[in-house]
Amino acid sequence: MGERNKRYFVGIDVGGTHFAIGVVDGEGKLLAKHTMPTGAGRPFGVIVKEMADTAKRLVVRAGLAESRIGSVGIGVPSTIDSKTGHLIFANNLDWRDLDLIGEFRKSWDVPVYVENDADCAALAESMDDAAKGKNTLLITFGTGFGGGLIMNGKIFKGGDNSGFEPGHFVLFHKGIQCTCGNYGCVEAYASVSALVRQTKEKMQACPDSLMWKECGADPEKVNGRTAFDAAKKGDAAAKEVVDAYIVYAALSIANLVTLFRPELIIIGGGLSAEGDYLIKPLYETAKSRIYAGELLGMPPIVPARLGNDAGIIGAALLGTVHI
Amino acid sequence: MGERNKRYFVGIDVGGTHFAIGVVDGEGKLLAKHTMPTGAGRPFGVIVKEMADTAKRLVVRAGLAESRIGSVGIGVPSTIDSKTGHLIFANNLDWRDLDLIGEFRKSWDVPVYVENDADCAALAESMDDAAKGKNTLLITFGTGFGGGLIMNGKIFKGGDNSGFEPGHFVLFHKGIQCTCGNYGCVEAYASVSALVRQTKEKMQACPDSLMWKECGADPEKVNGRTAFDAAKKGDAAAKEVVDAYIVYAALSIANLVTLFRPELIIIGGGLSAEGDYLIKPLYETAKSRIYAGELLGMPPIVPARLGNDAGIIGAALLGTVHI
Fold it and tell me: What is the residue range of A269's domain?
């Protein structure tokens, strides 16, 4: 196929706070990218129209005609019926039972594919050399605790095709309530949102902690790095927050290893920037809590290669997988 | 193939306390069966020789020549490497890293297949009309908490082929120690062994409970039915034991539904004899703890059709699947 006929793909990664749009070539190379606030409180139709309009403008900005776009892929932090693309439940956006494809095509009549955002990211990351051919689990630490599992080259969608929800198995029977309505979910303990809550709670209890300085003495400015940054400077209260958080995250991963035995685990989301400071203790703690770890071994944990772009690229690649 | 050339299969279901041997035809019909104590403290070689010798005698008792046996299948409550049949770790038997196939063939030189016992039971149960073509999860409440998952007609063995261990994901972070060495495993709360422990603990705290009468005032005679029987007669302490146990079992099942979304759940093991008294509250409680239960629905829970014979029949059928 000549350069002139080369097809491009649009990927949209919808997050709880922001959505990111990218234009990608058939090999997953990102040519243009734009990020903007999701504005999650607004009506669904308004948000989706904004996505479609922004995507079309980005295609122009990338120097391409709309006709060169083979398809649009959308990754949503939601349970998706893969057969129909129907959006079943996105707890962090409070979206349920919605026809995202139909809504999008009101603004842009193009083939549209929808999948869970973590599944999209897993698809993109699983194309890395280190992951190729391996059954790979991607865990994304973000507003939620997302996970995508690639088994035998395909997105693992569960027995009834409604997906795999690693952020919502119950880690603490009588735990705090999750945004999904259930109690004690992984996401309520091991997401970045949970880490922010845990950081704020410890700050209230420890007025002398360095964490106050890290966030400019403004609890509203606490983010996923606050406790990590203060802990690295030796703050004891921050270290407690980080240590407890790592146990929650490690237990979540250990349970997934016991059940799914992936060959490689990739960590994505903002927290993956912590590198070995996060990954080394995460690996060791998870290894100590999997079934028969000494005999079966703990699969390696590596940071995501594509960073925050994995969601966009994987969403865009949905078109290449389906076509 | 004429009746004279018809092949038969031997299935051995190895449990923590007893093992059962059966001779089965190619359609899974049980022709002869024998059960005996495992004697789990004895050397591995002695136990395996006894299995092989007993199996050979049973074949004779069934009126068959040894040459009519196509293969022997053994189901073990163990992690198995399916490619080699190597036994990796059976926590309830304290067996690890053993060549069960080689050991068995010292006594009987016949094709031998080994799989996890719950996987064998799931294979047998999944051939029922109600389960046929469905992605089916079998949960076995026994000495351990076993589980087998049939996805797309095959035993789900995890990404690295070492299996799926639903009894050993961590349900309680700081929970009691499991026989596998880990803490807070499902098996330490939701197996029949755990129920027996929970029953004894409540009896110690409640000297007036009807549970004492149910076990002839002998705590050594407590079994999985003691609390259920007393609860049905209105004993409050027994009801507390049963209610708490059902929550543990339901949470375990709910987590598996959130991750695997099976289309049907089959309950096996001795406890399945409790029927609706167990299954109804188990279903309702699990439904309340799965992710997005109102939108995705809770798969039905039904009792095993084959009862305790599922393990034998499924083990025997391993030969028909492999051949």
Answer: 130-304
Contacts of A289 in chain B (CB under 8 A): 170, 182-183
Contact residues, chain A, for B97 at CB < 8 Å: 295
Structure ipTM:
0.87
Report the range of poorest mean pLDDT among A164-168, B195-199, B317-321. Answer: B317-321
pLDDT, chain B, mean: 93
The Cα-based distances of B48 to A160, A224, B19, B116 in angstroms read 40, 55, 11, 16
Of B159, B254, B292, the CB nearest to A88: B292
pTM as predicted: 0.88
How does residue A2 score in pLDDT terms, banded at 50, 70 and 90?
A: low
As a whole number of angstroms, the distance between CA A215 and CA A202 comes to: 13
3 state SS of A287:
helix
Clarify whether residues B103 and B215 are in a common domain: no
CA distance to partner chain A, nearest, from residue B259 (Å): 5
CA distance B195 to B240: 12
Interface of A with B in 261-300 (CB under 8 A): 261-263, 289-292, 295-296, 299
Number of folded domains in chain B?
2
Interface of B with A in 52-111 (CB under 8 A): 79, 88-89, 91, 96-97
Q: Are residues A66 and A189 in the same domain?
A: no
